[in-house]
Amino acid sequence: MPARLRFLAALSLLSIPLAAHAELATERYAPAQLGMAQTMLERAKARAALGEAARAAKLAWQARLDAALTWRMTESAQLRSDALSVRRAAEALISRLAAQR
């Protein structure tokens, strides 16, 4: 029985570096995801300015989704703050477009 417990303990220790590595893997892509959110928001604003409400709404929804994804991918306070700003701006645009219908 002690050999089995040692095996299980060793196995559990092996999973710790893998979990830490997985967190770092998403963290490194968060800035790019935020960039996508910002780009989609800018495109949505441009389409809204041209009067293309349907396309603007779709782009704003994509920006909102990308911003939410960014927030979940990182633990960086700055990235999370920026992602929240983009998300709120996208939601405001979505609301504005919906009110125009």
What is the strand content?
under 5%
Shape: elongated
Order of helices and strands: HHH
- Count of helix runs: 3
What's the alpha carbon Rg, rounded to whole Å?
A: 21 Å
Low-pLDDT parts are: none
Major pleated sheet: none
What helical percentage do the residues reach?
over 70%
Terminal CA distance = 70 Å
Class derived from helix and strand content: mainly alpha
Number of domains: 1
What is the mean pLDDT? 87
Let me know the number of strands.
0
Short description:
With 101 residues, the protein is mostly helical.
Attribute tags:
101 residues, mainly alpha, 91% helix, elongated
Tell me what the structure shows.
There is one protein chain. With 101 residues, the chain is an all-alpha fold. It has one domain (29-99). Helix content is 91%, strand content 0%. It contains 3 helices and no strands. The protein has helices at 2-49, 53-73, 77-99. α1 (2-49) runs antiparallel to α2 (53-73), α1 packs across α3 and α2 (53-73) packs antiparallel against α3. The longest helix is centred in the first third of the chain and has 48 residues, at 2-49. The protein is elongated, with a radius of gyration of 21 Å. The mean pLDDT is 87.
